[in-house]
């Protein structure tokens, strides 16, 4: 007579079917623990990481070339529609407004019509600034972006920006670089995790190529796309950014994007003022995000097809551009003027209001464009206005309006996106101002704090959160990777012997003793070595004759784990093998049984983490003779606490 396990069915997903029968028998060559399936030891990097890194370096170079082509395409369209000349030089539409007059209203509207048609018959994914869409593909679709986005996104963005759209080129190139990385990841035979790394590498390389900010680009990828900080993802992304920045140096030079004179380090009062400015700008960033999505909701209620919305947004852009020409186009020169104090208080205030009006309505209409440059313009102007005001009201504070503008520029991005480190490092890399680092850290952190208190989602995540996508907001070390199996498993294991007869075991099972209520039992030989595991259901199955010994029933080795493995490795092993329990063996003697690890043990291990997060107690006492109260003691030291079984 043979066991039905000789022809085991296919694996069952443990997420949908409970494993109440303990360990199923797994295929192997012999019924010994030598053949037991053990989890693979996790490593920091392997040869596959080298392969992904090599691909990422090439991808970084490609993203830099695409960034150059995109800026040339924007320049070409701008020169054609505003100046009637054929040139790829980057130029501002503002100088053309005086001779165009009211015709300037039609140019952005025409661009909106073209973008609407491309979105309708090309891909709806080209709408918006691209980062939320990339995040959604990472979280839900194994980073599989449709290949057509690789060319539709930059073309549509070049049309929108070239016809006067108040956007920066960085959003489209980030989305395009990510789409290129995803496309390569779909051609090559890679895992979903590796494809995510390629997507993030392409996106970060695109940002590096536009702003010459490789470190900020890496941090952006970590905070908004990877949602992790591991060597196997960090190394490819970092080297892709290095390659992209190096290519930018060859194509565009090595000077910072926003050049500023050397600034003096701030004093104490000035530093406190910059932090306060950051907090105020953070508050404004919350309302900026809410207004942008309120406008988007308003467009959703229009009784016309969404294809025409970008044209409506384009009309607003043109009207605003007629009165405020500096709001048209990418506006990188505006940011540099703000940071260098070249604009008056009135000009700063006017530019801030009009840029926000033009950008928010245009973005809400669903056209194709970025958010970084407009936010930097708005935040920089706000910071500069506040800095000028404080310098006039309290000159002894030593507030520099240029540093205030730098803080405002970074703080609005930190508050709107909650990418704190990205904002700080980006502002430093694009200006090369070491004196601004401390004010940036204080101001951006204040903005981050205000945003986290007042707003659940960000300008990057609100759109996909409305679709039911849960975006990670906190990145913590895997707690299960910090706990070893030997500390979590149950060591008092009820075992059966290979020499026992099935009839004897069945009588014992039906006696109802606590020891007999388990769902699985390791079977050991006379030396104490585990030969396999039998489930309660198998032992009670009437197709097996009562004269059989347990040694005859065991035909497959157990699925085991070493007591030195981490709970993360053990949990992954459970999922891979579709089981709910693992045999735990000694790290010194792989034949020696030391315990059983269940899913309940893994869940119970989280108890310490929860206590550390929720339990508050005072341990340092200043009066002698006082004994700690029982309720002040950690839960795992109180009398009566013990192992939680499944």
From TrEMBL:
Keyword check for Ion transport: yes
Keyword entries, A-Z: CBS domain, Chloride, Chloride channel, Ion channel, Ion transport, Membrane, Transmembrane, Transmembrane helix, Transport
Region (Disordered): 623-646
Primary site of residence: membrane
Topology class, membrane: Multi-pass membrane protein
UniProt keyword annotation of Ion transport present: yes
Pfam families reported in the protein's UniProt record: CBS (PF00571), Voltage_CLC (PF00654)
Basic and acidic residues bias: start-end ranges: 623-632
Membrane-spanning parts: 49-80, 100-119, 197-222, 234-251, 263-287, 307-331, 343-361, 373-394, 406-428, 434-454
Source organism, top-level taxon: Bacteria
Subcellular location, record wording: Membrane
CBS domain ranges (all copies): 489-550, 554-612
Protein name according to UniProt: Chloride channel protein
Species assigned in the record: Rhodanobacter lycopersici
